[in-house]
Amino acid sequence: MPSHDKPVNGQDNPSFFDLFDQTPPPPVLELDGKHGTRRLAKLRAAWKESWEEGGFLYQRWEEIFQARHGSWHEIANWIKGAGLLAGISLIVMMVDTAGDIASATLKGLSAAPATNAGDGSGLWGTVDQPIRLFLADQAAHLAVAPAALYAFWQLTGVLSLIGGFFRNSGARIAWGLFGCVTLAMVWSASPAGGRAAATGLAALMWALASIFALRGLTLRPIVHNHPPQFQPQFNPALHLHATLPAPTPSGDDYGDNIHPLQR
After folding, report:
1. Measured between alpha carbons, how far is 60 from 51 in angstroms, rounded to an integer?
2. Hey, which of 63, 127, 192, 195 would disulfide with 76, CB 3.0 to 4.6 Å?
3. Residue 11: beta bridge partners?
4. 25 by DSSP, 3-state: which?
5. How far apart are CA 187 and CA 184, in angstroms?
């Protein structure tokens, strides 16, 4: 009998289709001329036998049950393959969905109508008005609407602020670049008489928002006190030096272990 699985208890583990092909039909159904009835009986017999201990489906179910408690190397190969295939399919679906969302967002920003520039009054208007004017002037030389540039500027600031609050390094770098670009736009588009005041006000607003974006950031050096990897080993040892007596002369009348008592 051909085997399609690992041996169980020293015996071959036949597959379900082998059991189906080799299972004889019931004797009563052999007298019946209906081919479909005999085939259905063989299918039922093969299904029942494959679920018995040591059968093909029984062994697969045991592998699934043991995979919950085993390591990656102990999991059956077919379970690994199915898991990897499902993971790759999920990643492809997520990337495709994210691409569609990003494409729709960019198209919406490009088709956004022009926003009202306002009169530039108030503290926020002093900073916001030069930014709108600067973006509108630059958009005249680009194939993009001023509203799309302004919306992208706002989106960058919001995402970098939120990411920096959660201590994301990339978001904090983006927040720093966002602040520098904003100050440059305010300085460039503000009136000459109030340029310094508008830029300073924008810097103060950005510094206040940085309290949240740079939460937990410190400039103090971090000192790691780790014990040395290789420590000298001190093994005290006691060394005893014994002095051996001189050999007895050849003409001595005393034995080797007996010596006269001398004062």
Report:
1. 10
2. 63
3. 8
4. coil
5. 5
